[in-house]
Amino acid sequence: MPWLRDCxxxxxxLSLSSDAELVAAIADGDRAALRELYVRHQPWLTARLxxxxxxxxxxxxxxxxxxxxxxxxxxRWSGAGEPTAWxxxxxxxxxxxxxxxxxxxxxxxxxxxxxxxxxxxxxxxLFGVAHGDLAxxxxxxxxxxxxxxxxxxxxxxxxxxxxxxLGIPAGTVKTRMMRARTQLRGALT
Amino acid sequence: MNLTHLDEQLLxxxxxxxxxxxxxxxxxxxxxxxxxxxxxxxxxxxxxxxxPLDQQSVWDGVLERVDRPTRSITERxxxxxxxxxxxxxxxxxxxxxxxxxxxxxxFVAAFAAAAARFDGDGPWLLLVIAPLLxxxxxxxxxxxxxxxxxxxxxxxxxxxxxxxxxxxxxxIATTIPLLAVGALVAPGGGWTVFGWVLxxxxxxxxxxxxxxxxxxxxxxxxxxxGWMVALVxxxxxxxxxxxxxxxxxxxxxxxxxxxxxxxxxxTIAATRKACFDVMTVSGGGR
Amino acid sequence: xxxxxxxxxxxxxxxxxxxxxxxxAVDDVTxxxxxxxxxxxxxxxAGKTTLLRVMATVLxxxxxxxxxxxxxxxxAQGRELIRRRLGYVxxxxxxxxxxxxxxxIDYVAVLKLITDRRARHDEVRRVLDVVGLTxxxxxxxxxxxxxxxxxxxxxxxxxxxxxLLVLDxxxxxxDPEQRLRFRELLSTAASGxxxxxxxxxxxxxxALCQRVVVMHGGVVHYDGTPTGLAGLAAGRVxxxxxxxxxxxxxxxxxxxxxxxxxxPPPNARLDEPRVEDGYLLLVGATxxxxxxxx
Lengths: 189, 286, 294
Prior knowledge:
The complex is a heterotrimer. By secondary structure, chain A is an all-alpha fold. Chain A has helices spanning 2-10, 19-27, 31-50, 56-73, 83-102, 121-128, 132-139, 143-154, 159-166, 170-188. Chain B has 15 helices and no strands. In chain B, α9 packs antiparallel against α11 and α11 packs antiparallel against α12. Mean pLDDT of chain B is 83; it is low at 282-286. Chains in contact: A-B, A-C, B-C.
């Protein structure tokens, strides 16, 4: 439609808007702003989710869910911090949601009630320095422990959410996290 | 904190899942704060031979879900009550279904009930005021002055009478039960406390009938004033007791007459239904 | 005038009269309008809106016959058959405050009895695309600019691809660029349909309409082609350096010349007549004074 192109042309050039401005525009129902946000953030969200889940269909569905959730909840975004972190928080939880939906062993409760994460302040500090010895230490962790570290510390998930993402019981997440902590401390001293 | 940017090889490795966990973690930490590296990653991902996923179809899926129409709270409530979605859509524009209006009705009902409880003169205030509320709701539910899309609605094939009746029923269905709760709270002599119910229907019917001649909001005012006059005039001056006891309207024969008036109003509105289908009153402009 | 088109007329008015109290808004108008775009031109209060409301089945005339798309407007059955194939943009369309553009068009689509939800939503999206509002269709209407609201109003009229399109001053409040786009839109969206629109702008008529009807005081003063309307002023449009004080119709143009319509002032040369000249000649000096306020 020639009209449509004209209209996009005369409206504000969205490529100059900040992410926060885009989210505000989305809260007002601006579809073009959602499109711009999608173009900017879909690639890295997809790439990062692929590091959490190998099934491309699941990742695609989670990305789709993420932007639909962004559209619906943009008005509730507090405006504090970067939209990037907010969107990742949505994306990883949507991934869990899709996995839960597809998995055969459906969990008993579908509510995220556990607010505490396993990541302690120490973990976060450790991980802020992702170089040198620590990098080696992490890479040397067994795969299953590394996945737990990634889910709880990097992605900031609760035990329950991490359990769903990894498809293991919550108790296992806790014990693996403890083992990972011990191994990391051992490798660093 | 991030002085340098990620180089292309590193991003390619990240997209192909061929970097170590620690490197991936470092890349992810950087990506969260660096827009230019996110853009770089987008370029890298777009160039990959086997694009990780079909961007366009994901976006189409997003649009498909985004473009489902939003439903207002009123519409969703009506949906819960098994009202068809398109009917709910028509009803949602009725001012009398807004929270503000319902709150006003609750307030008036509560006030009248409280007056009956503490005043000691019986539920006369409730009986006088209650029939006026549905009239106000119906008088503001349609018409050239208050419905902003009135003219478009008239030019549409949906029957004007159907639209009007739908909204009238919506007003009655919300207002009458709220008032009934007020009446139950109010102390009073048995059924007299529900003496306003039949007049409510009668006044609404007369408002509808009159709105085939004048605009609905004027019809509402005329009917409202008429109700007040009737209350004052139709009094058994020789009788004893309080206002409600002496009023002819709240006597059994009075209530029968009111019911007949309601039937007459409905009949007039139904026989003059063509008036709901064309603009009867000038909305200004020539 | 004899209707030159061979197609069946979309609009047939026979002696239509409408009064408001003592004023006669439309006085014994007989018209037949076929496919294509017809412009209704006239000063404020000429009876354009009343006539368009009659053509949109919104207003019943006091006397006279109205036949639209082959059905009479005198009974409910005929009106419903017409309304199923009619699109109407009122002069000042209002909107419910809480609605987004999508919600509003969807609401009108329900009024237009498009009951299947999926089909209705597809149609809503289609008309919003036609007027170029896809990107803002979920914004609340009150957040949209005046020009966009006009387009929302036009979009609802296009629902169901009507065969009769009645538009009351659709270009009012649009800036020149938007007016240009509107012309483009109308010429594509309305192909094959009978389109009647009212306007104050003679250049809209010249650019858009195959036929023009000039109304003044509730009466039709001209009915024919825009070129024919311009032709009424042939040989009577003069350009002079100064204003002739005795001239009835004269105004200063952008290039500093004074344009006279009617008797030649001294030291004047003839100029090409335009639609505007013919229109002014028809409805007289009162209109010129009125339009100079705009």
